[in-house]
Design a protein that fits this description.
Pfam families: IU_nuc_hydro
CATH superfamily: Ribonucleoside hydrolase-like
CATH class: Alpha Beta
InterPro entries: Inosine/uridine_hydrolase_dom, IUNH, Ribo_hydro-like
Radius of gyration: 20 Å
Order of helices and strands: HEHEHEHEHEHHEHEHHEHEEEEH
Shape: globular
CATH architecture: Alpha-Beta Complex
Number of domains: 1
Domain Inosine/uridine-preferring nucleoside hydrolase: 35-280
GO cellular component, one term: cytosol
Protein name: Twin-arginine translocation pathway signal protein
Strand content: 15-25%
Length: 337
């Protein structure tokens, strides 16, 4: 029994050492995909949790972090510099994590597209195009969007040939009537889609970009209990304290207006689950389930219309939240060691 215990301890120490080496440039785990992270980091803090998790995931090569805008006047950030604020927030998290990284952090457009035929211009749009057109790597490219679709829509309008060179994973869109019912007092249009309806219309109605969609009924499954925030995240050094502090402060502010109970939805974390945590062999997010649907046509009001010319897209219906959160807890603990 003692020998077995000692062996397991040494194995754990060895694994932790290797993993830590990878976090600072070792070779225990090597990337098997590229990702560009595009999120409204000055908005709902779930994007920051997702960002921290991805940056601690050695199987992905993060090529860029894009700070994106919110809807004009959004309560999270009512300023006119939302994208720049988002980029600054991402930079602050990277600094808190103490990671030596050459990953560019870029501000996207501070405004939505004026219509579904006019792209915005930004450094972020240019980066997406350049990365998608690379020929010096065989690693597949995923664009991970946890908010609006301004940058990817603008990129594919600017250079349509990128459409078949990446996969878009998007947290957003309302429920499909044949798959789920909306929650009580639901917002209409759905929050992330409403950030830039014109951009969503470009991506769904006009482009041929492969889409893995995590609609509202599914991203609402990513529920973190407050008890786990206190026990699994908050004690884990500067990063755990930083993330839990942001979320606790927000929960306190919200509680003045709405009793939100003892959970919080980290709805952007599936972006990690569907990439970094794919299965080892025959790689795919095999512990989460999806259906193939014809891409709907998004109308000017931000609702789904049937589109008989639509292409098949993945619509995720069930998430493996245990894998997703337990992996995050473990990586935070390893970082803190």
């Amino acid at each position: 029994m003692l020998k077995t215990t000692c062996f397991l301890f040494l194995l754990l120490v060895s694994y932790s050492s290797c993993f830590s080496q990878k976090l600072i440039g070792g070779t225990a785990v090597t990337p098997r995909m590229r990702v560009i992270i595009d999120n409204d980091f000055s908005g709902d803090p779930d994007g920051l949790f997702q960002l921290a998790h991805l940056l601690l995931s050695p199987s992905v090569e993060t090529r860029a972090i894009i700070g994106s805008h919110l809807k004009v006047g959004d309560g999270f950030d009512p300023s006119k510099t939302q994208a720049q604020n988002a980029a600054n927030q991402a930079k602050e998290l990277v600094k808190v994590m103490g990671l030596k990284s050459n990953v560019p952090v870029i501000a996207g457009s501070n405004m939505a597209m004026p219509n579904d035929s006019t792209p915005v211009k930004s450094e972020a749009v240019n980066f997406i195009i350049k990365e998608a057109l690379r020929t010096d790597t065989k690693l597949p490219l995923y664009l991970l969007c946890g908010a609006g679709l301004t940058e990817i829509a603008s990129a594919v309008l600017t250079d349509p040939q990128i459409a078949d060179k990446l996969t878009l994973i998007w947290i957003g869109g309302p429920e499909y009537p044949d798959l789920a019912v909306p929650p009580p007092n639901y917002s209409n249009p759905e929050y992330n889609l409403n950030i830039d309806i014109a951009a969503a219309r470009v991506v769904f109605n006009q482009s041929t970009i492969p889409i893995w969609q995590v609609p509202r009924n599914t991203y609402r499954q990513a529920i973190l209990p407050y008890s786990q925030l206190l026990l699994k995240i908050k004690p884990q050094g500067k990063v755990g304290s930083y993330l839990s502090g942001i979320l606790e402060n927000l929960m306190t502010r919200i509680q003045k207006f709405v009793n939100i109970g003892e959970t919080y939805i980290l709805g952007d974390s599936p972006l990690v689950l569907l990439t970094a945590l794919q299965s080892s062999f025959e790689a795919d997010p095999s512990s989460s389930t999806y259906v193939m649907k014809m891409a709907p046509k998004i109308n000017p009001q931000g609702a789904y219309d049937f589109n008989h010319k639509g292409r098949p897209i993945r619509v995720y219906t069930q998430l493996d939240s245990n894998l997703m959160f337990n992996d995050f807890f473990a990586k935070l603990e390893l970082l803190n060691q």
